[in-house]
């Protein structure tokens, strides 16, 4: 079964470029396009895509609110949102991640990275590029708590090892890198990540990373 993709961007030329890249792949199918957030919501309902490639800055409704309505609480549809950002201009990417996006990608990323990101997100994983994640969270640290706030009660439900894993997820490490850091197997790491997501009521690694910053467990700029 091909991965069904909805393209959302207010620039038709960019949508055309993305379509050409994706339709060259046998396992990807572009099922529709939208030029703003309102159209995106309607198209998601009508077309039931697996992945929505979502721009941030659009007329009528931006990508953050559209993401919130597509993936927010009570939404049981299959659609995952992969946010497109120019990074230097998009100060709302952290908000999009909070809203339920499964990751983000730079608009000037190579074609193979775009294709791989869609596959990763469609598989239920998070597109969490370590270097970009740290830069972005550090840049927009003013959007996040200072870390002086009380630790949420939900954090106390985690074991010490699960807290360690959450911190490493927030740094953008992959399961393999976490396994090497903690001297355990990847299977063990996957189990810990699953427990963290379940206990904290989070949908994926991206939300786990944002939670770690928002709770004060990890400070912006800290290593």
Automatic annotation (TrEMBL):
Source domain of life: Bacteria
GO biological process: phosphorelay signal transduction system; regulation of DNA-templated transcription
Any single Pfam family the record assigns to this protein: GerE
CDD domains in UniProt: LuxR_C_like (cd06170), REC_NarL-like (cd17535)
Domain Response regulatory: 4-122
InterPro entries: CheY-like_superfamily, NreC/VraR/RcsB-like_REC, Sig_transdc_resp-reg_C-effctor, Sig_transdc_resp-reg_receiver, Tscrpt_reg_LuxR_C, WalR-like
Residues modified as 4-aspartylphosphate: 55
This protein's UniProt keywords: DNA-binding, Phosphoprotein, Transcription, Transcription regulation
GO MF annotations, alphabetized: DNA binding
HTH luxR-type domain location: 151-216
UniProt-recorded name of the protein: LuxR family transcriptional regulator
Organism field: Streptomyces pseudovenezuelae
